[in-house]
Amino acid sequence: MERFGVKSAPSRNRSKTALYVTPQDRVSEFGSELHEDGGKLFCTSCNVVLNHVRKSAINDHLKSKTHTKRKAEFEEQNVRKKQRTLTASLQCNSAGQTEKSSVIQDFVKMCLEANIPLEKADHPSVRAFLSRYVKNGSSIPKSEQLRKAYLPDGYDNENQLINTEDR
Fold first, then answer.
1. Which helix (H) or strand (E) holds 165?
2. pTM
């Protein structure tokens, strides 16, 4: 057909999706019923992931019986829980996690300054003492992990302090 100059009819399979719409755009468009986390669009009251590309899918969900039922339950509970993605949850550091990290770093620093080998942390009596008398002391890992994960941090911090003192 191309040889004779006859063009085929235009394809009717064009997608009716919005190509450049982000989940955040849909949140601003629909208000507090939706929220975005990690590039995904969530219904706040139902805690389900919605397709942010198709506006009709969002409208259908918001008009559905299950959504209206869950929205009524959600407003009765008066608790604003929003579902989060796994990556966002893992990136969030709680106060306990930061405290645990600081206890471990302080322990490694104390061992280095007192010339105590990190292998001594594996001794059962040291473990018992740490878990009994030190807050978060039972969270101090074995010597191998202390050497691999926390010793380089202490080494880098000390080098920075020495370099700043020399200037």
1. helix 151-166
2. 0.44
Phi, psi dihedral angles at 150 (to 5 degrees) = -105, -25
Residue 124: what pLDDT? 92
Residues 126, 85: Cα–Cα separation, whole Å: 39
Question: Which pLDDT band holds residue 125 (cuts at 50, 70, 90)?
Answer: very high
Is the per-residue pLDDT at 117 higher than 70? yes
SS (H, E, C) 129-149: HHHHHCCCHHHCCCHHHHHHH
Contact 146, 110 (CB under 8 A): no
- What is the DSSP secondary structure assignment for residue 10, as one 8-state letter? P
What confidence tier does 95 reach under pLDDT thresholds 50, 70, 90? low
| HSE-up of residue 44 (Cα within 13 Å, Cβ side) | 18
Alpha carbon distances (Å) from 41 to 35, 47, 48:
6, 10, 8
Residue 98: CB atoms within 10 A of its CB come to 10
